[in-house]
Amino acid sequence: MKVTAIIATLFAGVALAIPTGGGGGGGGAAAYDPCSGLYDTAECCATDVLGVADLDCAPPPTVPVSAATFSSACAAIGQRARCCVLPVLGQAVLCQTPVGVDD
C-alpha cells in the first residue's frame, strides 16, 4: 500500500512539473515600450518649450522596437523622440525624453 502511495505522489509531482506549452515560454525579451505611466504617448516633436509643451508633434513613422530605433525614426523626419501626457492637434503638454534615448 505504501508503494502505491509513493508511486502516485511521484506521478503527481511529474505531472505538475511538465510545462503546459502556453504563454510563449520564458527567457524571451519583453517588447519595447518607450513610454509608460503618465507619460504614455510616444511622439516625435520638433520644438520643446521648457519641458512643459512640445510643438509640431506626431506619432513616430514606424513602430519603435528599441530606444535607438525610436530616436532614429524621429531624427529621420527632423524631430526628437518624446513621451507625452496629452497630445492634441500637433501640440503636446508635459513631455519628457524616453528612457534610453540620448537627447
UniProtKB/TrEMBL annotation:
Do you know which Pfam families this protein is assigned to? Hydrophobin_2 (PF06766)
Name it.
Answer: Fungal hydrophobin
Query: Which positions carry the signal peptide feature in this UniProt record?
Result: 1-17
Q: What InterPro entries is this protein classified in?
A: Class_II_hydrophobin, Class_II_Hydrophobin_sf
> Which CDD domains does the record cross-reference, listed alphabetically?
hydrophobin_II
User: What family is this protein classified in?
Assistant: Belongs to the cerato-ulmin hydrophobin family.
Q: What is its main location?
A: other
One GO cellular-component annotation of the UniProt record comes to: extracellular region
Which superkingdom heads the taxonomic lineage of this protein's source? Answer: Eukaryota
Gene3D superfamilies named among the record's database cross-references: Hydrophobin
Keyword set for this entry? Disulfide bond, Signal
Its taxonomic path starts at: Eukaryota, Fungi, Dikarya, Ascomycota, Pezizomycotina
Q: Where in the cell is it found?
A: Cell envelope
Q: Keyword Nucleotide-binding, does the record have it?
A: no
User: Among its keywords, does the record have Signal?
Assistant: yes
